[in-house]
Amino acid sequence: MHIGLPKEIKDQEFRVGLTPASVKALCAQGHKVVVEKGAGVGAGFTDDEYDAVGASLVGDAETAWAQKLVVKVKEPQPSEYAYFRKDLLLFTYLHLAAERTLTEALLKSGMSAIAYETVMTADGRLPLLTPMSIIAGRLSVQFGARYLEKQQGGRGVLLGGVPGVQPGQVVILGGGIVGTEAARIAIGMGAQVQILDISVDRLSYLETLFGSRAELLYSTAAQIERVVPKADLLIGAVLVPGRKAPTLVNRELVAQMHPGSVIIDVAVDQGGCIATLRPTSHSKPTYIEAGVVHFGVPNMPGAAPWTATQALNNSTLPYVLKLANQGLDALKDDPALAQGLNVADGKIVYPAVQDVFPDLGQPVLN
Q: What is the pTM for the complete model shown?
């Protein structure tokens, strides 16, 4: 199969869909990989490295997009919609529940699009979302600590505190992978950490990880109203696969937080769980609302592209090889991969996305 690897064009997105090692594996099985020049530079991979493993380097995105299978990292940007066509198979993060315009463009083209974030195994794991969730969770505290600095608009709180001065308070909404990794870093920095989740089983598991180093709370509206106003750093870590995240924190509650507190919502690309949080970018990552610093960068792992690209490829390559070898027939043999199909033949085929856009057609898969 002919596979295209275009350069990412989302603001300061330096990750790349395939590493040279992944390209080598594809070429070894007889596939042709067309790489847009400079696609891997931001992640630390030179054009020469791609050339050395058998890739065909091209100077324009159009040629990379003209291949049968296109592998990316982030959702296509509006300027890329012109490359859509019926016989194209796209494999990337999509997050369609928060992207109506993109969904409409995919449907209009008739192409097939498989979303990394909805590939799901029989036991409910999300193998292609997990590596980026780990990175985003860890980065959320790293960024939070930075924007709590007074020079960055924060209230000047050191998360770890010092002897004689209490540490900062970190509240994490959601105890999944993102929340767990955020807590791991926050605890390591010496912060006071509260984790809220609606699963008692998950809270019990977190107790085995953190013991008394984190306060584990069952998430209710009343509990959220109690802890959010005291947070120096509030992290949204709520994920409902394929759907928009529920709003857990309203504007009135945000207004009760200390001036200069920081909010980071890792699920902003799925709509986020905090009413005042909107998508930002690495170029302009924050804004102030109700006196609180809001950070809403949807491609947070792009800040660590060398690590993130390799972590992503470790998980995506087996699926890319299946698609390269079998095309869409691979979905018949791999139920997890079949769960990733969001759009095909002008129809939404992932029920959770269809629920968000009932006017855009009926699902054809269950």
A: 0.89
Query: What letter would DSSP give residue 215?
Result: E
Q: Residue 361's pLDDT is what?
A: 63
Contact by Cβ (8 Å): 169, 228: no
Successive 10-residue mean pLDDT values, the chain, 366 residues: 97 96 98 98 98 98 98 97 98 92 96 97 94 96 98 97 97 97 98 97 97 97 97 92 83 97 91 92 96 95 96 98 97 96 96 90 49
CA angle 179, 184, 185 (to 5 degrees): 105
Determine which one of 95, 197, 265, 294 is catalytic. Answer: 95
Domain match, 238 and 107 both: no
In-domain check, residue 366: no
The reported pLDDT for the residue numbered 219 is: 97
**CATH number, residue 87:** 3.40.50.720
CA distances from 244 to 17, 159, 276, 355 (A): 25, 30, 15, 10
Domain count, the chain: 2
Helix residue spans in the chain (DSSP H): 20-28, 47-52, 61-65, 100-109, 130-147, 177-189, 200-210, 221-227, 251-254, 305-326, 330-333, 335-338, 351-356
78 with 139, same domain: the answer is no
Choose the catalytic residue: 197, 232, 269, 334.
269
Say if 172 falls within a structural domain: yes
**What is the predicted pLDDT for the residue at 364?**
46
**Is 258 designated active site?**
no
Domain that holds residue 63: 2-119+304-360
Q: Are residues 290 and 218 in the same domain?
A: yes
Residues 15 and 89 in one domain: yes
Where do we find the tokens 């919609």? 81
Q: Is 282 a catalytic residue?
A: no
pLDDT value of position 17: 98
